[in-house]
Amino acid sequence: MRTSEKVTLTELQLMIMDSLYLALPDWYWVTAEISEIKENYAGHCYLELIEKNKDEKNISARVKAIIWNKRYSFLRSLFENITGESLKPGMKILVKVKVEYHEIYGLSLTISDIDPSFTIGELAVKRQLIIRRLEEEGVFTMNGGLEFPLLPQRVAVISAKTAAGYTDFINHLRGNSGGYVFYTALIETAMQGEDTEHGIISALDFAASHTELFDVVVIIRGGGSQTDLSWFDNYRIAYHITQFPLPVITGIGHEKDLSVTDMVAYKALKTPTAAADFLVGCMNNTAVLLNELSSGIIDNSNLIIEENRSRIETAKIKLIPVARVMISDIREQLSGKMIDMINIGKEFIVRAGLLPANQQSRLLPGVRWHLSARKSGVAHNLLNLRSLTVNSLKRHNVKIEGFDKTLGILSPENVLRRGYTITSHNGKILKKRAVLKKGDLIDTLFTDGSVKSRVEQ
Predict the structure, then answer these.
(1) C-beta of residue 51 within 8 angstroms of C-beta of residue 61
(2) CA angle, 57 as apex, 98 and 141 as ends, to 5°?
(3) Chain mean pLDDT for the chain
(4) What is the pLDDT of residue 226?
(5) What share of the chain has pLDDT > 90, as a percent?
(6) Is residue 253 left, alpha or beta, with left meaning phi > 0 and alpha meaning psi from -120 to 50?
(7) Structural domain boundaries in the chain
(8) Starting from the edge strand earliest in sequence, which strands make up the sheet with 267-269, in order?
(9) Residue 193, by phi and psi: left (phi above 0), alpha (psi -120 to 50) or beta?
(10) Which of 30, 122, 393, 405 has CA 20 to 30 A from 321's CA?
């Protein structure tokens, strides 16, 4: 065709189509990323395929593609059964295509086959890259290192309200055989589809701003399609969980594999009911621990009581002879002081009655006066001596009465009246239980009598 020759737009389009068919007559296997995908009312699948630069941001190529309804029904079932995933934006695929050109709709690709193994490999690579990134950042095990509460009763549940897994979780939690009470708060969000990332992160942020209200967070996705695990192989969701201040439990409902979300959580369970069983089990373990601690406290308390009873009995036995010795010593001291006072009084009296005879004859007037004064002094001294003796006797009598009262309080009879008992075996007071064996007869003395007992245990 000469360049000066004129053609219509339709003719040019047909020329382009013929050229493409001549140049690209075969079917080609092409790798691409799904940018958009949708099904129309007739069951045809329309896609937009792209290829990104190495920076994973800028697009280097873009083309429209179609899978006709009958072929799409077959390929979709095959792909989902093998990969466990559904075709969705952001997924890399390997497809068998033929180049098509239409004078109105332009260039497009007709897809006749999809290689699921390629997508599985791409998903695995993506998953490993996320795991490696979290490990390099040193956050992969952060949530798993948190201290788990002994009583995880206040539970924030991140789930779709209408999900069957959420209903199973709540019913299982409330109907636990132990009768434990749980307080749950649903933070509703989408658990599959393109809104999964934003919804779960927003729910985690809400729970993080109210940590005083919750003990743990449970992420539940159950009762829906089993082909949406990849929504939880998400770096941003996983990173938020690693930074979360409370333990996160997952019950996403996948039996075959763990998502990255499961891996970074404190505890990953296969199903929502398994997550409920885990919380109930934690409560049960705490109840067992409390029972063990209670038994230990009771045993230690009984041991301390027995030890102190033995100490009291020993102190009582030692105190009685000591008190008697003290009273005897004090009585002896009082008797000695009384004798000393009497001797001093006699000495004063004797000295007062001894007057030199020569002074009596020469100094009769003075002697009379002196004798009179001396008699008055003796009388005064005698009064003082009597007062001192009486006061001293009173003070010592008060001390003796105090010791007598103390002995009365500590006497076995009064001890028995205060509620204590004395247990003996073969006439010997028991101080330790270790000396007894099963079948021994023991006597227990009360304030109003005694009883005999036989040791059974």
Answers:
(1) yes
(2) 115
(3) 84
(4) 42
(5) 26
(6) left
(7) 9-131, 140-287, 416-457
(8) 183-188, 154-159, 216-220, 248-251, 267-269
(9) left
(10) 393
**Tens digit of each residue's pLDDT (9 = 90 or more) over 321-360:** 888 888 888 888 888 888 888 888 888 777 766 655 555 5
Rounded Cα distance, 273 and 159, in Å:
14
Higher model confidence: residue 286 or residue 1?
A: 286
Q: Which two tokens stand for residue 352?
A: 């007062």
Q: What is the Cα–Cα distance from 350 to 49, expressed in whole angstroms?
A: 142
Torsions phi, psi for 246 (to 5 deg) = -115, 155
Which residues is 108 bridged to in the sheet? 64, 100
Segment 243-257 mean pLDDT: 82
Answer whether 0.70 is exceeded by the pTM. Answer: no
CATH architecture of the region 140-287: 3-Layer(aba) Sandwich (3.40)
- Which residue matches tokens 């658990």? 191
Contact 234, 197 (CB under 8 A): yes
CB 240 within 8 A of CB 204: yes
Place of tokens 């393109």: 194
Question: CA angle 67-83-26, nearest 5°?
Answer: 35
At position 66, the amino acid (one-letter code) is I
Going by C-alpha positions, the residue among 159, 155, 250, 144 that lies closest to residue 200 is 159
Token readout for 32 is: 């691409």
Q: What is the pLDDT of residue 400?
A: 87
Q: Print burial letters for 271-293: b (CB count within 10 Å at least 16), e (below 16).
A: bbbbbbbbbbebbeeeeeeeeee
CA–CA separation, 336 and 344 (whole Å) = 12
The residue whose two tokens read 């009597």 is 386
Give the pair of three-digit tokens for residue 373. 């004064």
The reply to whether domains 9-131 and 140-287 share a CATH topology is: no
Confidence class of residue 361 from pLDDT cuts 50, 70 and 90? Answer: low
* CATH number listed for the domain at residues 9-131: 2.40.50.140
The one-letter amino acid at 202: S
